[in-house]
């Protein structure tokens, strides 16, 4: 593993959905409720996959027929409200809190690069008490959405580190393309078919994969 980080591991970038939080099912519920309001059938597997990677705006425009686009804003504000109806369903991925606590103890920088809007990711971080862990937080309305590498490049620049010392943990082809475009190491997370320079199914596996790369924990005062 040290071959991947010959100059050490300086920072870890996390995608949000599917990596930090278990949200695939709740996101599907949201989009299917919108479709149900329009008397449309539930999403197909292909639509589910698209919506899991894309921004909310891109997803809604993709699954709702064009002649109904003018009603989307009203429906998602008054009928199926994500903050009110869906956010309470979100759960952190098992082992995530322990993993980021360990990274912080080792003085490894952490950031988020998500295709959620900035307000949305800040709400997620606030709900789980996580804002102090991540800086910067890059969202779909503060940089070009993934698969563009713009946000990942911005994070490396903000940290003042070389891309080869940074790990991006993601679970989609968009994440992988953003990592590749920015020149950072990519870890494919989850049980799907995605593969990366590191491939793991959970945080215990990721910690084990990085064990020889992680800097030592800071000494107790």
UniProtKB/TrEMBL annotation:
GO molecular function: phosphoglycolate phosphatase activity
Catalytic reactions of this protein: 2-phosphoglycolate + H2O = glycolate + phosphate
Keyword terms, alphabetized: Hydrolase
Gene3D superfamilies: HAD superfamily/HAD-like, Putative phosphatase, domain 2
GO cellular component terms given for this protein: cytosol
Pathway membership: Organic acid metabolism; glycolate biosynthesis; glycolate from 2-phosphoglycolate: step 1/1
Gene Ontology process terms (BP): DNA repair
EC number(s) per entry: 3.1.3.18
Pfam family membership, one: HAD_2
Family annotation (NCBIfam families): HAD-SF-IA-v1, HAD-SF-IA-v3
Recorded family membership: Belongs to the HAD-like hydrolase superfamily. CbbY/CbbZ/Gph/YieH family.
Annotated protein name in UniProt: phosphoglycolate phosphatase
């Amino acid at each position: 593993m040290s071959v991947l980080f010959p100059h050490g591991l300086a920072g870890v970038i996390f995608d949000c959905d599917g990596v930090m939080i278990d949200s695939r099912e709740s996101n599907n519920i949201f989009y299917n409720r919108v479709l149900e309001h329009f008397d449309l059938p539930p999403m197909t597997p292909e639509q589910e996959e698209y919506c899991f990677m894309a921004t909310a705006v891109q997803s809604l425009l993709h699954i709702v027929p064009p002649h109904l686009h003018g009603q989307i804003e009203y429906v998602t504000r008054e009928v199926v409200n994500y903050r009110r109806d869906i956010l309470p369903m979100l759960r952190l991925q098992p082992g995530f809190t322990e993993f980021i606590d360990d990274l912080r103890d080792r003085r490894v920088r952490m950031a988020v690069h998500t295709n959620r809007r900035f307000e949305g990711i800040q709400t997620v971080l606030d709900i789980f008490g996580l804002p102090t862990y991540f800086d910067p937080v890059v969202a779909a309305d503060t940089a070009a959405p993934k698969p563009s590498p713009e946000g990942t490049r911005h994070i490396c620049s903000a940290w003042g580190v070389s891309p080869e010392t940074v790990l991006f943990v993601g679970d989609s082809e968009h994440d992988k393309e953003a990592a590749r475009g920015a020149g950072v190491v990519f870890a494919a997370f989850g049980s799907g078919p995605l593969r990366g320079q590191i491939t793991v199914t959970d945080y215990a596996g990721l910690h084990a994969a990085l064990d020889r790369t992680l800097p030592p924990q800071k000494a107790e005062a």
